[in-house]
Design goal:
This protein is α/β, with parallel strands linked by helices. The chain contains eight helices and ten strands. It has one domain (3-193): 3-Layer(aba) Sandwich (Restriction Endonuclease), CATH 3.40.91.20. The strands form three sheets. The chain has a six-stranded mixed sheet, sandwiched between helices. It is globular.
């Protein structure tokens, strides 16, 4: 069993990809975090107002996901890591994880430059190897949302070099996440709500 462990409504509304048994690990070893993710994805809607107007540094999509998970005890987390060789200690800081709870790391990549995927996957790899996380999750957007962005006159803001599913999958398939179990959700047009 893999992504079939997810509710059918999530499989119908998101593009879902899984590596290294991420769903089974989450459901069996981290049931509270699994339920948080299921609840988040079940309740999430992509509001027209979030897309139709330009944003600042952080999108309203990321804000909505952050707020939902923060209310359930997830937090932004930076790990203090270092490398020890004999008496030499070299700091090796990781990048902050958007949302973290009990060894589960989640990144939201709605409309960043696509090299942010490299950063996230490298972070997952390192933190997994250091036994700081057990699973990495990325929420991004499906490629076909571009049609909606174009209709709203926002197509150029969501360009080909920004984060979306077809920029992420080749990186993971090429081994960028290494041994870390990874679960990916693509926000699809089925979640688009013109009334909010």
């Amino acid at each position: 069993m893999g992504k079939e462990l997810l509710p059918k409504s999530i499989l119908a509304n998101y593009e879902v990809h899984e590596w290294k048994h991420a769903c089974a690990i989450l459901k069996d070893d981290f049931p509270a975090e699994w339920q948080d993710i299921v609840d988040l994805l079940t309740h999430f809607r992509l509001c027209k107002s979030w897309v139709s107007k330009g944003g600042g540094n952080k999108s309203q999509v990321a804000d909505a996901i952050d707020e939902f998970l923060t209310a359930r005890g997830w937090l932004e987390k930076e790990f203090a890591t270092s490398v020890h060789v004999d008496e030499n200690v070299m700091d090796s800081p990781t990048h902050k994880v958007d949302c973290y709870k009990n060894r589960v790391a989640l990144e939201i990549e709605w409309n960043n430059k696509d090299p942010f995927f490299d950063r996230d996957l490298n972070n997952f790899r390192l933190l997994f190897d250091l036994r700081a996380i057990s699973v990495g999750i990325i929420i991004t957007r499906c490629d076909h949302l571009q049609e909606i962005f174009v209709k709203l006159g926002r197509g150029s803001s969501y360009g080909a070099s920004t984060t979306h599913m077809s920029k992420l999958l080749p990186r993971i398939q090429g081994g960028s996440g290494a041994g870390c179990p990874i679960l990916v959700f693509g926000i699809s047009n089925k979640l688009y709500d013109e009334n909010c």
